[in-house]
Amino acid sequence: VYDRARNAVNAAQSWVIISIAGVFIGVNAALISIITEWLSDLKMGYCSDGWWLNQQFCCWEIDGAEEGACSTWRTWSPLAPGRWLIYVLFAMVFSFVAAHLVRSFAKYAAGSGISEIKCILAGFVMQGYLGGWTLIIKSITLPFVIASGLSVGKEGPSVHVACCIGNVVARMFSNFSRSQGKMREILTAASAAGVAVAFGSPIGGVLFSIEEMSHNFSIKTMWRSFLCALVATVTLSVMNPFRTGKLVLFQVTYDRDWHFFEIIFFMIIGAFGGLYGALVIRLHMQVMAFRRKYLANQGVTEAVVLATLTAFFGYFNRFLRIDMTESLAILFRECEDGGDYDNLCQTSAQWRMVNSLFLATTLRILFVVVSYGCKVPAGIFVPSMAIGATFGRMVGIIVKATYRAFPEFGWFAVCQPDVPCITPGTYAFLGAAAALGGVMRITVTVVVIMFELTGALTYILPTMIVLLMTRAVGDLFGTSGIADEMIRFNGYPYLDKEEHGFNIPVSRVMRKEVYSLDGTGMTVHALEQKIRTEQVSGYPIVSRGPGSTLLGYIGRNELNYVLDKARQTQDLTPDMECSFVELQEDVEFTPHLPPTSASPAMGIEDHDAVELIETVTSDNVLKLWPWVNRAPLTVAPQLPLEIVMQIFKRLGPRIILVEQYGKLQGLVTVKDVLRFTTLENSRARPWDEQDVG
Amino acid sequence: VYDRARNAVNAAQSWVIISIAGVFIGVNAALISIITEWLSDLKMGYCSDGWWLNQQFCCWEIDGAEEGACSTWRTWSPLAPGRWLIYVLFAMVFSFVAAHLVRSFAKYAAGSGISEIKCILAGFVMQGYLGGWTLIIKSITLPFVIASGLSVGKEGPSVHVACCIGNVVARMFSNFSRSQGKMREILTAASAAGVAVAFGSPIGGVLFSIEEMSHNFSIKTMWRSFLCALVATVTLSVMNPFRTGKLVLFQVTYDRDWHFFEIIFFMIIGAFGGLYGALVIRLHMQVMAFRRKYLANQGVTEAVVLATLTAFFGYFNRFLRIDMTESLAILFRECEDGGDYDNLCQTSAQWRMVNSLFLATTLRILFVVVSYGCKVPAGIFVPSMAIGATFGRMVGIIVKATYRAFPEFGWFAVCQPDVPCITPGTYAFLGAAAALGGVMRITVTVVVIMFELTGALTYILPTMIVLLMTRAVGDLFGTSGIADEMIRFNGYPYLDKEEHGFNIPVSRVMRKEVYSLDGTGMTVHALEQKIRTEQVSGYPIVSRGPGSTLLGYIGRNELNYVLDKARQTQDLTPDMECSFVELQEDVEFTPHLPPTSASPAMGIEDHDAVELIETVTSDNVLKLWPWVNRAPLTVAPQLPLEIVMQIFKRLGPRIILVEQYGKLQGLVTVKDVLRFTTLENSRARPWDEQDVG
Prior knowledge:
Oligomer: homodimer
CATH architecture of the largest domain in chain A: Orthogonal Bundle
Number of helices of chain A: 26
Strand content of chain A: 5-15%
Mean pLDDT of chain A: 81
Number of domains of chain A: 3
CATH class of the largest domain in chain A: Mainly Alpha
Largest interface: A-B, 82 and 82 residues
Number of strands of chain A: 12
Low-confidence stretches of chain A: 588-615, 685-693
CATH superfamily of the largest domain in chain A: Clc chloride channel
Structural class of chain A: alpha/beta
């Protein structure tokens, strides 16, 4: 009964933490949105009614009319060159502020953070990556970066920020700060909330946490993601930062259905997505290698130069000048109700538009390749979508023009004469999905996010077809998602989720020279010596004498803890003997010990906090056995490497011991496996050799 | 290179199989839909233009007008009692045909099949459950059952039918028929397609396969589900069985937003869902126990009696008389455009409607409890949704009436005076989601399915809130989903996905008396004797002499195979010695053997077909060692049971050997774990003891 009650309290606690984190994630996202919009508008002008108002609120009363009609909103200069200059100037200032803050206070705030969080969720420890400073600096700089006009998005960083909030909140509860497994659950839930608030897409967030982030899927984790995403989204919708009362960012109602002949064009768009992904990832990796070599300490300069260039050239293209989300909204819209931004829908302007869209696509790809990864918070979700949307709209306009030119052509026979047959907005929508799918290599999530973004339910099948095509083309080029490639580039210990066949036994990969401890007969002095000189995270315990029988495993932290404790409370002499083996008399004296006191080698969710027992020294023996994990995970040396990789991925141990007939043969960690697989893969990926090696 | 090419061919093959299965699933679903609709209408009348036309096609030209306006559609009798009699008569005939066919040709076609497929996907083998006969009989009888008016749905069985198709298609390819792992992947994908075509909800199908069906989540499996669901849905939409060109079954456009004060009512609906789930599951289990005891051989009679009773009473309630999907469509609709079925929207009729809806809810619950699980194909998805919808609509009408009565009340202050404030249709929608979530205990899937069914994107947050409440209430009552409870009731070997804490080592659960084989020195005669008398699926190999060192594991099938082979090709004398251990000379002669010839004890996806080597007898020794798995999965006896359960769930082995210091201590299977957990749980679940024990 007591156990059950404690479990209930624990469960309730995690729900409370997740809800609190969700609320903060929602509030933070709302604040970031509001500040971003204000800063973005500041580049164009200011509100004479009050400097704190952005263009939308400044012109709140004037609705639906032309842009020029709002007289309280003043542009900075009456002359076009003046406006351009100020636009560029603001971009410089904003990017400088952001890059400088990141450099001075929180280096970890740079980049999108998704690949690092993936590693953290897989068990890799990065001290401070999810700390309070990262949170604060990333939240403050994000609006500046977006407003500076750099071709980067705030959706990726929003996931990082959400995870920081989850971490900071959960750390306050000792149950969680002590258990890595529980912490990871909270972080997974927080990442779902991050996507949920970034896109206003709660279910998309949950799926993102399943498809991209989490290493082990479990129903419990999914539930927590669901709750966290829900709370965060409700909070955001209560805060209602855009005062539209809508979660849907780009609401469109495609009331016309698609035609089967359009599938061929959808497939072209899908192929573009795959190509785009492969191209951007490859180029980006080369830029990153260059950056690492030559620009390691030029973070601030680099960001300012990039922002200046982006603003300098971008100002002259109608789609690059405006905010990316704004341009997405414009491109998705149907032509009928007010979607005619800058003659986008006019047949007379169609070829001019195609050129403009093509230019926007190309330039934006260039900007994204160089900007993503510079030393400011930077995501690649929305930039990719913007690129896909310009490309898709371009295809849509071309198809529409073809239809107008040859309405009698066989394919177009299904078109009804009185209804517009081709809707270029839907092509933009599909293009955005394709580019996002191509660069991240996620699919179900993309379908759901696109849905929740727009509400375009009739286009579910085309979206799926497009993403299938994207995936097929991407596979052809043999790249994985940008997050996984970044992980590989940075050399983090992470096994990706794809399955490989190597056809070799684990003994080929394992480390054979293993530092181990004798079960009995070692002096405290020798033990301290060993700990000091050998940098390993733990020791297998083996029996003394011929043929080292494996008895258990003890972590370095546990060893240090016990030695410290013993030094404080008892008299510890250097020549005292250490015993890692349970003796008959111990069992009689302490019958109520848990079966395994701790399981560091397993690393699998340690649900119950480790109950620490007082050390006992008696008969001049330091008893270390209560801290020994007597059931470490072991495999036989003949086991195929694939299965060992599956054990790492699905059970998440840090170390697997290799044992045959009870004798220790070696040990294997994720790093050992990665060392091997990197060698195997390096031929296929030229950029790995250039820089990691 | 050769390996890579073979892998590519294998991968391509599985994509082809999945696509073919998808097409067949789509075609089959379309046919079932068409026949079901025709049979359903036949109860009411016939088309004078042609007996093969259903009411919709018979009245195709007459559109939008009143029901009476279609003169080609004739009811069976001009008198109401006559119509009622014929209605009941048809129900009897249909149910008799269905139950009789099931009993005569394919017993496995009864029920929904979801719990059995869950077990099959977890590794349990049920010969014939997914065979051709089951497929044919279930496809034929499903329309009869639905048309008979029994309170059962066709969505659950549709998953079973889809899996049968996947199995039948995949069996034709030797690669797949030989590998259980690959077969399971195909079945998972097929289950996604089954839900996709049943609801017209491809993404919902993919999520269903993740959340409910699949045991191990992997990105690869998700991809296959995605493809299969897409192909099946496209096929269905090309077939276009309803001639509406829509996938969305109950398209609604809720253009009015919800108000925050409504959340309290949404939570009531959510709580109803949880209560409904717990109640139905408990009652249903009791009915099943009763049925098992007294009605084991009365399948046909039972189905006919139930159908007769349902028709007899149901005819008098306006919501029970019509088809369940039709009533869902009516209840979901807003009142404004043509949603006024039988005065449902009239204020004057509101209390009459509340009574009628309450009666429909209660009666339908009763019908569902007794009908689900009778010996015909029967699902519980849509009946649950229908129950939830009637309840939800009732709540909605009451809230609306309250608002009309007290428009000045504080809560209602946010309502705008000129727009209807409460939309009872949305309450019905949420009720359907709640009841479905309550009975199946799936959430993300339900949200997505509800979306894809209706396109009601603005209601995503309320849907999530409702399902959260449902889940909380359901947890309070301590039941799991109906599929899991059925698995437990039937005693299938299945570890559910929830995690438990038992705090005991695996040594308490393992089987200690293990039949094992000596590594050397056993005669063929003794071996044959052992195989004949001991009914086990495989043997651990241990060294002869004191302290049985574990050397490996060999499956029973492998043993039989080798003995048969040896008998055919060589002279096998009964006193020949069997050797399970590799000798030095063997290694020299056969250096190119794979590291492990087969891994039956692991049971983890066996990607490469086992290459069988010719047996060699030399020096009067039968060499069995190439078939020995020398790297079986082993754990130490101190390992906590929870971790062993995780190994079973995440890695999916059939047997785990327990070993300490190289010596075999025992073995543990899923059944051993279940025997223990059932004992632990039985106190909480009274119905388990009554019948399973």
